[in-house]
Amino acid sequence: MHTIFEAIIIGIVEGLTEFLPVSSTGHMILAQSLLNSQNDEVMKTFDFVIQLGAIMAVVIIYWKRILSLFGLVNRKSESKTGKKLNLFHILIGIIPAGVIGVLFNDIVDEKLFNTTTVLAGLVLGGILLIIAEKKKEQPKTTVLDDLTYRQAFAIGLWQLVSIWPGFSRSGSTIAGGMLSGVSRAASADFTFIMAIPIMFGASGVYFLKNYEALSSDDLAFFIVGFLVAFVVALLAVVTFIKLVQKMKLTYFAYYRFAIAIIFALYMFLK
């Protein structure tokens, strides 16, 4: 039986880290370890459900651009050529992670959702951020509306490494975008928008797969976690999105290294 206290703490962690390239999933796994939470199917489903709560904050922030993808809002293009981001960009961006996620979901659950793999992911993901930041070439694509289909697919391929907990979906895709000639700001925007269908799909799959393990006793646990993640994310999202768009990725890499070292020492001394 999971507690409301766990739901609040993990919801806060998710809301604060979802929009930073530090791995929200990794932070939740570490938080659950500190709380001695039971790592069962209920908790794994809970993790995806509260990530969906945080992603709802993105829907609110990017609502006009999202509606424009469906032709429901006539939004002025940021591109000098008049080009606009469209649904095909999003589709080819989510296909790689969607296919691999479905095929290897069980393996990831069984082998990678633990503190040791998270610490490794934090370090390796931090190295990727540094490599992306050290790239000296000027980005060819500076605004989201100029994103090419090839770049969208390349970012989608980079998203595959985020299947490893600790790498970070936003970290891998922002770094991958920069390595593919997209500016940090445009990569971040595409990352957050692309996360919406990814997280809706992942949450749906996990719920359908594990709903039999859930009971009415878990309802309050899920609702509290979802609401806390949504509210915290909504309060943090504007500041954090601007921070990610402007701040060098190396600073986030150093933070990841520090967390990995501190937690490794904690595990060794415990």
Describe, in plain words, how this protein is organized in 3D.
This protein is mainly alpha-helical. The protein has 11 helices and no strands. Helix 6 packs antiparallel against helix 11. The longest helix is centred in the last third of the chain and has 28 residues. The radius of gyration is 18 Å and the shape is globular. The two termini are about 25 Å apart. The relative contact order is 0.20. The model has no long low-confidence stretch (mean pLDDT about 90).
List the helices and strands and how they pair.
Layout: H1 4-17, H2 24-34, H3 41-61, H4 63-69, H5 87-112, H6 115-133, H7 149-158, H8 169-179, H9 184-210, H10 219-246, H11 249-269
Helix pairs in contact: 1-2, 1-3, 1-10, 2-6, 3-9, 3-10, 5-7, 5-9, 6-8, 6-11, 7-8, 8-9, 9-10
Mean residue pLDDT: 88
Shape: globular
Strand tally is: 0
Question: How many whole angstroms does the radius of gyration measure?
Answer: 18 Å
Biggest sheet, open or closed, and with what strands and sense?
none
Low-confidence stretches: none
Elements, N to C (H/E): HHHHHHHHHHH
Helical residue percent band: over 70%
Distance between the termini: 25 Å
Oligomer description: single chain
Which range does the strand content fall in?
A: under 5%
**How does the helix and strand content classify structurally?**
mainly alpha
Helix segment tally:
11
